[in-house]
Amino acid sequence: MEKQIAFVSSDRMGDSLIGMVAVNNLCRAGYTVTVFSDYLFQLRDWFPGFSIRSYPHTFKSKVDWQDFERVVVLFDRPFVSDLKSHHRHVEVMSESELFRSSKSMVDIQLDYCRCHWGIANPVRDNGIASVKTTGRLENRVVLHPTSVDPFKIWPQEKFLRLAEALRRDGLKPVLVVAPNERPDWQRAIEQGYEVACFESLSEVAGFLAESQYFIGCDSGLGHLASCLGVPTATIAIRKGTARLWAPSWHVNEVILAPSWLFCRPLKSRFWKRALSPQRVMSGFRRVKGRAQIN
Fold first, then answer.
1. What are phi and psi of 157, to 5 degrees?
2. From residue 153, how far is each of 145, 147, 197, 228 by CA, in Å?
3. How far is 189 from 38, CA to CA, in rounded Å?
4. Are residues 88 and 158 in the same domain?
5. Are residues 148 and 53 in the same domain?
6. Statement to judge: residues 88 and 195 lie in one domain
7. Which pTM value belongs to this model?
8. pLDDT, tens digit only, all 294 positions of the chain
9. Which stretches does DSSP call E strand in the chain?
10. Pairwise CA distance, residues 228 & 24, whole Å
């Protein structure tokens, strides 16, 4: 494989963090890789030693693709067809049969490194490094109750009942939301819960790195917490999708609605109603127990 590689990551945070597993293994194998990702560009201080640039949303973005001997694209995007017509070595990872596997997406990255690039002993590490923090704050549990996809959002009143259960267990729940979402969580503030928001993704990473646990909807922050070494519980809708996309770096449990909600139409319509705070709390306690053993 050519030594100068452009790695076009995803426009989603979780995918981008997973793609860094491939990038890290390429760099460890001696390749010079430039990563293109808006999310990773915001987190570039957490990836020292990596060259990271903003995401090229069109083929005509300010990137001279001819500077690279090969362009590797994590997931196909509309501009990739134009890119293929102007560059003779464009490789789209998601076109591999490996991406149809039932393994976790992190494991698929490892298989891809072995099968397509001949990297004998790839590592799960995505290269993230702990920026200096004050250390883990014992008993702080980050709750991330939102998602870019409204369908994945568990109801607010259930998150508040979960926060109450955590507090009864002697833990400190902190809800983390975007600045524009904070007004929607006034009820939580009135009930005495901390609702934290940050100006940058790098600040969020710092807060996660100092936390003991993470519970959240299926979103990129769960992946960020996991690769920072935080045990996570993920509220998800479908088992198959969760197996593929769940955070995979540290202890994680996927928490689903009861099994009697077995068919897709029922899950889509009723999963939020069927998944109780008690069920999520039970899943979290299993995560906590496994993390303490590890």
1. -65, -30
2. 7, 6, 18, 23
3. 31
4. no
5. no
6. no
7. 0.92
8. 668 999 999 989 999 999 999 999 999 999 999 999 999 999 999 999 999 999 876 656 678 888 999 999 999 888 888 888 888 899 999 999 999 998 999 999 999 999 999 999 999 999 999 665 566 788 999 999 998 888 889 999 999 999 999 999 999 999 999 999 999 999 999 999 999 999 999 999 999 999 999 999 988 999 999 999 999 999 988 887 878 888 999 999 999 887 765 666 666 677 888 899 999 999 999 999 999 886
9. 4-8, 32-36, 51-53, 70-73, 90-92, 140-144, 172-176, 194-196, 213-217, 232-235, 252-255
10. 15
Cα torsion angle, 125, 21, 202, 186, sign: negative
CA atoms within 13 A on the CB side of 229: 13
Question: Which residues does 30 contact at the CB level (< 8 Å), separation at least 6?
Answer: 3
Is residue 129 a part of any domain in this protein?
no
Task: Tell how far CA 38 is from the center of its chain.
Answer: 14
Range of the domain at 57: 4-117
Give me the amino acid identity at 100: R
- CA 8, 30, 88 angle in degrees (round to 5)? 45
Q: In which residue are the tokens 């508040």 written?
A: 160
- CA separation, residue 266 to residues 111, 117, 151, 180, 235 (Å): 35, 42, 14, 32, 17
List, in sequence order, every residue forming a beta bridge with 173; answer none if it has no partner: 141
Identify the residue whose tokens are 């008993």.
139
Whether 133 is in a domain gets the answer: no
Task: List the alpha helices (DSSP H) in 95-249.
Answer: 105-117, 156-168, 186-190, 201-209, 220-227, 239-245
